[in-house]
Amino acid sequence: QVLLVESGGGLAQAGGSLRLSCAASGRTFRSRYMAWFRQAPGKEREFVAGISLYGVSHYYVDSVKGRFDISRDDAKNTVDLQMDSLKPEDTAVYFCAASVVGTIGGPNSTYDSWGQGTQVTVSS
């Protein structure tokens, strides 16, 4: 497993932007597919975006395509989520997650490392 710590959440107005960052410890970061999930009150945790090893491919849930951008820096062991054109329905706790080493990744992969979560609130 890797230790994941998120930062950058907060309050934004609809149409605004926020950037989330996730710092990872451990030597297996660059061997892991990384993702961001979110959980809104009363709802199940939802896969939002994912990025493959070396940043070759990206995956986004339909509701955030064209608005969110995931990136990773293997030299710094970080993965970021740039969120633009925010909507009130983006309000949730956002979690950084690392897939099990050797797995393909994506919404249905197995994630064995999770951050503590960071709150994002978008006002209308």
How many DSSP H or I helices?
Answer: 0
DSSP strand count:
11
The end-to-end span amounts to 38 Å
User: Given the C-alpha coordinates, what overall shape results?
Assistant: globular
Would you tell me the structural class of the helices and strands? mainly beta
Give the radius of gyration. Answer: 13 Å
Instruction: Indicate the percent of residues in helices.
Output: under 10%
Largest β-sheet summary: 7 strands, mixed
Question: How much is the average pLDDT?
Answer: 95
Order of helices and strands: EEEEEEEEEEE
Share in β-strands: over 45%
Question: Low-confidence stretches at least 5 residues in length (pLDDT < 50)?
Answer: none
Describe this structure in words.
The chain has strands at residues 3-7, 10-13, 18-25, 34-39, 46-51, 58-60, 68-73, 78-83, 92-99, 111-114, 118-123. By secondary structure, it is an all-beta fold. The strands form two sheets. Strands 2, 4, 5, 6, 9, 10 and 11 form a seven-stranded mixed beta sheet that branches.
